[in-house]
Amino acid sequence: MNTATASRYAAEYQTIAPVLPGQALPWLKALRAEALMAFSAHGFPSPREEEWRYTNVSGIEKKLFSPSLSLTAGDLDSEWLKSYQLEDTWSVVLVNGHFSAELSNLTDLPSTVSVMSMADALVKQPDKVEKYLGTAADQSEHSFIAFNTAWFTDGLFVHVPVKQVLNKPIQLLHIVTGSDAMATTRNIIIADEMAEAKVIETFVGIDNAYLTAAVTEVFVGSNADVTLYKMQSESDKAYHFGGSYIKQARDARFTHHNFAFGGLLARSDIHADLDHASECELNGLYLGVKRQHIDNHTRINHLKPYAISRELYKGVLDDRARGVFQGRVIVAIDAQKTDSQMNNRNLLLSDDAEVDTKPQLEIYADDVKCGHGVTVGQLDEKSIFYLQSRCVDEETARNMLTFAFANEMVDKIKIRSLHDIVLEQVLARFPQEGVNKEWL
Amino acid sequence: MLSIKNLHVSVGDKPILKGINLEIKAGEIHAIMGPNGSGKSTLSHVLSGKGGYTVTEGSATYQGKDLLEMAPEIRAREGVFLAFQYPVEIPGVSNIYLLKAALNSIRKHNGQPEVDAMDFLTLVKDKVRLLEMDEKFLYRAVNEGFSGGEKKRNEILQMAILEPKLCIMDETDSGLDIDALKIVSEGVNSLRSPERAFVMVTHYQRLLDYIKPDFVHVLAHGQIVKSGGADLALELEEKGYSWVEDNQAAA
Ligand SMILES: Nc1ncnc2c1ncn2[C@@H]1O[C@H](COP(=O)(O)OP(=O)(O)OP(=O)(O)O)[C@@H](O)[C@H]1O
Ligand SMILES: [Mg+2]
């Protein structure tokens, strides 16, 4: 705990508070004040906390990141932007934590569907926001959530009404351009009963040290279906905290694809609460090179009977990179007939790379089917020789096998344009030698 | 084509091959038989360059070059092909991708341009038909979830497409039912040519009914204890390996 940092942020807060969205709403003002107090008392999470054992965020405390008070889109390279912005989506672009109407695309949105910036939503649909904000992400969980609640400058708000099936994905493109900047954003995605939506969160930044602290709350109504993709390709000096907190109603289906590629230190939380016969699928791929530290922290709460959860996280760590996987599955006493499977597979490409993996099953019901598996290993020598015997040189063989390991997760992406961008990101991080894209 | 002289190979401190001598000329088919653990796979592995073996004595010369000096992939590009006794599963790499990578490496090695995509597809589909395989196998991950017989067939498919000069087949017939054995043998026979040599490791005469060898060698305790023509295999089938082993002990 470093409260000195916390009080520095608290002092800063007074200057920014007046321009934060929703200041006219008493409930939000109170919520933010409470969050600020919680954060001031705590500071950023400390490795003494069980959920932060393997991830030390003291690097963040050494700097004082400052929020930008308004939109400063400035001189964004349009080619660069295009390489991340997907065509054929509705998009909300946030630059340094603020909505850019100019870069976003919300045309032809069905009139019953809401896709807008959080600041807009707080003006147009404050009651809806009040009903949901902070109800999936528990402020007492850890202080990044409190930090986010106190500081968020904008975000994405999505509401898909009953039975509405979106025929295009929604993209949240989160861009940070400033040095020592901080972008704190809050997102809410609501899919009512039997609705269907696909949302893509893309986190990118320009080669700077900055802090992203984003919290996304997802509400999947009964028998509704939501797929959330996250591609985190922050700058390699950046700090990233991103939490996705999901509440699934009865029979609700939720799928998450988490691609953790960027950042000097990156932490993702994915926590899902499952109701009766909900289905939850969590997929993850983390690639670490150089001195990157990439932490993924998942929690699946089986609260009621008959829910199904499937989780597969894969990690590839090279150089001196460090990966963390903490996956918890909790099966409540009432959650009979739970069917849950969690797997974490890691490939270490160098002697200095490291991974801490900690799958945890906490089962309080007695009639359940739960399993988990973990592997940490190197490339298989037999496979390398087999490829060599088929004319492939050793380095290419290693790259082929590494790529194949990672590509299993990329192949799960059902949106073609996103698939191609993620594939590019994977290829850019590992030697392309040996993987001929044209042949794939 | 291949000349093996007094080859001694150990794994760690344990000698496994103890002075192998073998001359293989282009166009010939050699069968190697012998009891379990006699060193047949070890010989195949050493010739194709698998790590973990130490050559303590002797030499293997392939087309005038020191084979044992070459990296495994160079041997493969120079035309040495090993059909594995236990083919390896490679999840995430499709059969067709590997075939393309392999074929293009050979072409590059020979100073030729990459294979044309259409020509490649025609070639591959031709060979798939020859081995009576389902085209779907091309798009599946290499050997992943294949049955034992399918894996062996896939090895021969690769061999048929890569057109090696020296084909080493390690127990390709084991695990094949009689129909598959016929198909695979026909595939192999279609590859026979005056420029190509075959080394077939097998336990069974059955295979040799379909692919008639010019020479049969018996490997026991790391040495070739007897060599002969195709008739030797029949004699072995009748009398068992102990016959040659005893013979050798007596001599
Ligand atoms: N890596 C190894 N470490 C230790 N011993 C080994 C190793 N590889 C092979 N051997 C030993 O060398 C001997 C020869 O093995 P090899 O696999 O070459 O026999 P083989 O003739 O192919 O037998 P099979 O007919 O059962 O396939 C055996 O005793 C085997 O246990
Ligand atoms: Mg063998």
TrEMBL record, chain A:
InterPro entries: Fe-S_cluster_assembly_SufBD (IPR055346), SUF_FeS_clus_asmbl_SufBD_core (IPR000825), SUF_FeS_clus_asmbl_SufBD_sf (IPR037284), SUF_FeS_clus_asmbl_SufD (IPR011542), SufBD_N (IPR045595). Residues 6-172 form the SUF system FeS cluster assembly SufBD N-terminal domain. It holds the Pfam family SufBD_N. It comes from the Bacteria. GO terms for biological process: iron-sulfur cluster assembly. Residues 175-405 form the SUF system FeS cluster assembly SufBD core domain. Belongs to the iron-sulfur cluster assembly SufBD family. NCBIfam families: sufD (TIGR01981). This is FeS assembly protein SufD. The lineage of its organism: Bacteria, Pseudomonadati, Pseudomonadota, Gammaproteobacteria, Methylococcales.
Automatic annotation (TrEMBL), chain B:
GO terms for cellular component: cytoplasm. It comes from the Bacteria. Keywords: ATP-binding, Nucleotide-binding. One of its GO terms (molecular function) is ATP hydrolysis activity. Residues 2-246 form the ABC transporter domain. InterPro entries: AAA+_ATPase (IPR003593), ABC_transporter-like_ATP-bd (IPR003439), ABC_transporter-like_CS (IPR017871), FeS-cluster_ATPase_SufC (IPR010230), P-loop_NTPase (IPR027417). Pfam families: ABC_tran (PF00005). Belongs to the ABC transporter superfamily. Ycf16 family. This is Iron-regulated ABC transporter ATPase subunit SufC. It comes from Methylobacter tundripaludum.
